[in-house]
Design goal:
The structure is a single chain. By secondary structure, the chain is α+β, with helices and mostly antiparallel strands. It contains 16 helices and 23 strands. 28% of the residues lie in helices and 23% in strands. Strands 1, 2, 9, 10, 11, 12, 13 and 21 form an 8-stranded mixed sheet that branches. A 5-stranded mixed sheet has the order 18-15-19-14-20, with helices on both faces. A hairpin with a 4-residue loop joins strand 9 and strand 10. The longest helix has 18 residues.
Length: 522
């Protein structure tokens, strides 16, 4: 779970039962996009985690999909490539050598859906609104001041060096709003849940957090890639029904099928599979008042060496990978796969003996109703329990509903926990939250001052400019965390996207899952 997606909502909520009407509505028919009023309609099935369409307030996966289509951001990413931000509403940008100032030049001719021009004033208003709302995405602009330089230039100034800022700006929560329109409606979330006020390729036609969202092509869109579909319908559908719908042509895309569910699909359907950027991890609480067993460094070593990582990957299916550190394998600063932990049963038993703990036992908390990219945490916890029994460790499983267990996790009350982190933005600085005294570190009872060397490395990495230098620092951080920290990275599950043969341009993106506006039709 990312930092703000756990602010009020988990990054994947229990599946919501959807009325039969919603499951059958807007069927495309056949293997091609359906027609609606003479135009093409794309139907996308996904399991909703959706609260609002207001960019300043949304930070849930389905909201990111929706707002990516409604609102342009200053910068964006092309397809799955998150290694380099590219032009969005800003045609170019420069970052100062000290990493504190980012200057962005707006694209000429950009217009909102009502035909009015996008201005520097709209950018300043939109980004300041995110900051002032103090909602889930506000942390993205912590320490940032937004100002208008001239009619087509905006400057973002950070209190400290902020090399990650160009990678943060593509987040759909930082979409640019029509300031005049939004102000006229009092900045109302209710208004933005009925009528969009952006310059994106689509406009909002209808919005329901339980059933479906309908988007309509924006005829006044001035971006480089015109949308291929006249209408997009995003429906809240459970995974088994997603499979049925896409097989019979009632939808053209299914986003939440597991590796088992995509095996043997027929009818010309295309399956795109690969590792997601979600990292599932174990935490062992360093607070001896919570558990003297979990706080024992040698016990942590025994757990790390006692896990059969290859066996865990088999649960997630084709495309899943084992990250060597807490940073996912596709991001800058990820450790090479050769550094990943391997099972060493003899070493695990030796470490357990060195711990001095007689008949070690620990309680493992996790959300019972949570799946990550289709993988049940219950299934994963049971496999971990069985593996550690071979080491001589008794693991008592303590599943609880997400809302209950999330409180235990946030408040640092779990002896051991099984959770995951989905990236807030594709930069290694997002993972400094795991260091002592930081957000996730505290959830594992890892207080400030627990490792001054590691904290100093984190401070240095946060302000260092240059990919090579940053990569080296984040590798150092993860190596030290693997040696002495309370976190054990387990896997990045596979992510599967199923599409009809008529749909082109499928690309998984760790920030917004899929850019529906970039999809083509043939």
């Amino acid at each position: 779970m990312s930092r703000s997606r756990t602010g009020s909502y988990p990054a994947a909520l229990p599946l919501v039962a959807v009325a039969a009407l919603a499951l059958s509505a807007c069927s495309g028919g056949g293997g091609t996009a359906g027609s609606s009023g003479g135009g093409k309609t794309l139907v996308v099935d996904t399991s909703f985690n959706l609260k609002t369409a207001d960019p300043g307030r949304e930070f849930e996966p389905t909201g990111q999909i929706v707002d990516k289509a409604l609102y342009e951001t200053l910068l964006t990413f092309k397809g799955s490539d998150v290694t380099k931000p590219v032009a969005g509403l800003a045609s170019a940008y420069e970052q100062s050598t000290d990493g504190r100032t980012l200057t962005l030049h707006l694209r000429k001719g950009a217009k909102f859906s009502d035909g009015s021009a996008v201005t520097a004033d709209d950018v300043v208003y939109s980004l300041n609104r995110v900051i002032e709302l103090k909602g889930n995405p506000s942390f993205l602009l912590d320490g940032v001041t937004v100002s208008k330089t001239d009619e087509s230039t905006v400057t973002l100034t950070s209190k400290k060096a902020n090399p990650a800022l160009p990678f943060i700006l593509p987040n759909p929560a930082l979409g640019i709003l029509n300031a005049k329109t939004v102000k006229a409606h009092g900045g109302s979330e209710k208004y933005l849940n009925t009528t969009s006020a952006g310059s994106g390729p689509y406009t909002l036609t209808s919005f329901n957090t339980n059933t479906q969202v309908v988007l309509t092509r924006n005829p006044k869109y001035t971006g480089p890639q015109k949308p291929a579909y006249d209408k997009i319908v995003i429906r809240n559908v459970q995974a088994p029904t997603q499979k049925l719908n896409v097989q019979r042509g009632d939808s053209q895309i299914a986003l939440d099928l597991t590796s088992d569910q995509v095996t043997g699909l027929t009818g010309g359907l295309k399956v795109s599979s690969g590792a997601s950027s979600d990292v599932i991890f174990l935490l062992l609480n360093r607070n001896s008042k919570v558990s003297s067993t979990a706080a024992n460094a040698k016990f942590t070593e025994a757990v790390r060496k006692g896990i059969d990582y290859d066996s865990l990957l088999s649960l997630a299916g084709t495309g899943s990978v084992q990250p060597a550190g807490i940073i996912p394998s596709t991001f800058l600063g990820a450790l090479p796969s050769s550094s990943a932990a391997k099972r060493d049963l003899a070493g695990a038993k030796a470490a357990l003996k060195a711990s001095g703990i007689d008949k070690p036992s620990v309680t493992l908390g996790f959300p019972s109703d949570l799946t990550v990219d289709g993988l049940s945490l219950q299934t994963l916890a049971e496999r971990v329990q069985a593996q550690l029994k071979e080491v001589g460790i008794t693991v008592t499983l303590a599943p609880a509903p997400t809302t209950t267990e999330l409180d235990n996790y946030r408040n640092g009350k779990e002896q051991a926990g099984l959770w995951y982190w989905g990236p807030d933005y594709p930069d290694p600085s997002d993972y400094l939250a795991f260091l002592p005294g930081n957000l996730v570190g505290l959830r594992a009872g890892w207080k400030a001052g627990a490792d001054d060397t590691l904290s100093a490395l984190g401070d240095k990495a946060a302000s260092t400019i240059g990919d090579d230098a940053r990569k080296a620092l984040y590798e150092q951080i993860q190596t030290r965390m693997n040696d002495s920290g309370p976190f054990i990275p387990l896997m990045q599950p596979s992510r599967n996207t199923v599409a009809a043969a008529s749909v082109t341009g499928i690309a998984y993106n760790p920030v917004w899952t899929i850019d529906v506006a970039a999809l083509g039709a043939k």
